[in-house]
Amino acid sequence: MFTFMFLVLLPHVLLSSTNVAVISPQDPVLRIGSSLTARCTLSHGLGLHASTLYWTLNGMRLSDSTYSVVSPDILSVSLHSLNGSQQQSGDNLVCHGADGHVLAGSCLYVGMPPEKPINLMCWSRNAKDLSCKWSPGSRGETHIRTKYTLKYKLRWYGKEKECENYSTGRQHNSCYIPRNLALFTPYEIWVEAANQLGSTTSDIITLDILDVVTTDPPANVRASRVGDLEDQLTVRWATPPGLKDILFQAKYQIRYRLEDSTEWKVVDDVGNQTSCRLAGLRAGTVYFMQVRCNPVGIYGSRKAGIWSDWSHPTAASTPGSERLQSGSCDPKPGEPNSTLRRELKQFFGWVRKHTSGCSGMSIKLYDQWRVWLQKSHKTRNQILQDDNS
Length: 389
Known about the structure:
Helix 1 crosses helix 2. The two termini are 37 Å apart. By secondary structure, this protein is an alpha+beta fold. Strand 12 and strand 13 form a beta hairpin. 17% of the residues lie in helices and 37% in strands. 26% of the residues are buried.
């Protein structure tokens, strides 16, 4: 069994040394929709006749109606309107003897030449590296192996270089350049695509590393109440550490949403401050908040970089419309937002068993508890979705 499988995978390599038979053309490369006539030619003195042979393609026997006995030693097969190769390593076209033994084999590469790569974009994390991604052309799938090479060079001088650290996904390809990048000098960057049917090149983009800087999300994001104000919360955060090394300033955005909502509201006018007061909020309501950062120019340049990812969410609740009395955590029945108040009653009931009274710490614990509770709900829902898929 092992020998047979090995022969199927590499028939033209093994059988060429034994001089049993040969298929021509050997390993052809064809466009989708093409036709092919291949011949299996037997070596002399084997005592075999071409009429006893048969063909398979990827292990499936081809119809006798596609065969033609050219001579006692030659059996041909004709294939029309070929589809794209089922595997990028090529489809196996094999000639067999009457007893099923493999006599010769060839690989068919059926596909399309690559189209010009599109949507090339690059970014630098903290001006210390460069990552680029791009998409294949409109058709995308070429059915045969296509090699993408990202190249770059300094615009006015310098040697052309190739990126080495590639990754491939369904929607796009990417490459990572970890070091030895020049600042204050523009680069020209492009992608070349090539396979056995042709090659093409993307449009060239020109960029300065300092113009495509992004960074980590702001750290240590936290939210708190503004005294007893029922409609306000304060959000504070720390500058991403990477910005401190490269003399960038930053501008920030905040987004926030109600606990039971998926709709975010964005605050754009935060500027370079590391705190912001949110006003006009609902009383007695839990809010989730996130912050992101955009590096802004160096040495006086005001050109913005690229927005970071959003920070991990933090949560805080606004005071209720009826302030809690000292020493009592029970909400009055029949008031609005009964679900939240019921949960507050349950939570503070637990607090009373383990602490004395309702301190400010209990409010903070409640906010943290709500974040944990929502994460638990999301995790459980994800597990249910995975089980159902």
